[in-house]
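mind reviewing this stuff:

——
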Amino acid sequence: MTAGPEYGDVLEPSSAAVLPAGSLDTVPRRSRLLPEGQRVLVKVHLDLAKAAATSANHRLGGSTPVGQLMAEVLVRQGLYEYAEEVLPRQPAGDAPLARRTRWAVTAAAIKYWGAGDVEAAHRVLRDVGSPVTAAHRAGLLLLDGRTRAALAAGENVLADRPVPDEAIPPAVITVVVAAGLAGRFGQALAAATRPGRGRPRSAEIGYAHCFVLLLAGQVRQAHRMADDGYRDAVAAGSVAVAGGWLALRGAAAKTRGDLTAAIADLETASHLFDGGSSGPLLAPCLAELAVARAVSGDLAGAEQTRLLADAAPGCRMFVPWLTLSRAWITAAGGDTTLAARQARTAADVAMASGQYAVEAMARYDVSRLGDPNAVRHRLAELADVVQGPLVPVMASAAAALARSDPGALDVATAKFTELGMDLFAAETATAAAALRQAAAPAGGVARPDAATPLLRLTARLAGLTRRERDVALLAAGGFTSPAIGHRLGLSARTVDNYLGRAYQKLGVTSRRELAPLVAGDRPHRPVHAEGNHR
């Protein structure tokens, strides 16, 4: 189910200009406004809604109540409380089906996104029982994390003949996203490219298509598609549409290892998503932004972004993303042991909801965070469940990390490079070099400006346990034993024991000697936090 109804271009938002990527200060967030500013903004939205509804009603020959149109405009603006106030009473059972359907779709959006009442939203749609409400119910199942049920429901709508035009977009979006999450990429892409009946493909279907390309590991194609979509939105002057493409372009840039571009795109998109019909996309966008900041070494920025993601409107479908973002923030703070456990939790949640493609990503993140043995067998199973070349590569890379096999890591590096996943390729190349006791990876693999655990791996660090490595890196960054203990949940005495074992393995006796050994020939990027350098 989309955040608002789909009824042609009568209610489409418009703008005279689209913000360029990185322009952050010109789109104020409603949550940052003072109470008086909030009242003024709401008054503006109400006036615009009434004007748009009156104009649309005039063009439609007075066939739709103005209150219905006003509610639809307000839903598109994310003002669900006010939409509920102006929405007319539920039409009687003998009213035309189209009118009852239109009312139900709007009321369900208000109940789901405004009140968080999932069952009430389902009930409103079920009571009408039209193909359009069935399509939106399928979307609700998807948002509620019920991937298999959503996919079946969406396919049922599209299998009916004839399918009403208004039912096609929500049903197609549901099928594309649900099939993609389940790893059934062939089914997802077939639905995304199904021919329309004389209507242009909606931006939301384009988003779903691009999202599936990312899940399938077709990163370059996804990046091109998002970039083209963004440029088209800029040319059309559509802020709302541009935000979605920016978020997808940023996610692709993050996977490619271009963190500067990823952060710029995701940050701008998060401002464009703050309110309006794209508001539900804010939480996953912020989760991606938090990971990009964490991987770039900006722990404070990642933690702040994570708090914003927690406060954003959410649904169960995005829980694995939010949980996984927490893992990467934890890793940026130096605790890869806890981070790997959090990534395993994200994978378990994804598996329980039928999001096998997301589960595979999360399982591989467990491997990237230092625990490949915990996931290698499940990744091998997922390679037979999730379509496409990506999961087999991740499974082989995790197995190679578990076996400390540099040759197999070289093969994974080449395959990740072919897929355009340069960050993953740099990680496996770095791990292979460390296992060979080499100073740097073999030529031909670009090194992103990132600070993941595998990218920080050196020949000396490869001989330490994961906990010894955490302690050694923090000690090399200037943290005292009590500060390290606070960060890792250990006593200072336990930290000293780990540090002593690391000293013994590395042949050093002090923090001063430790830093150049663990950093190798790369600039050391310590994790900064107030109050820890004592």
The first helix runs from residue 35 to 59.
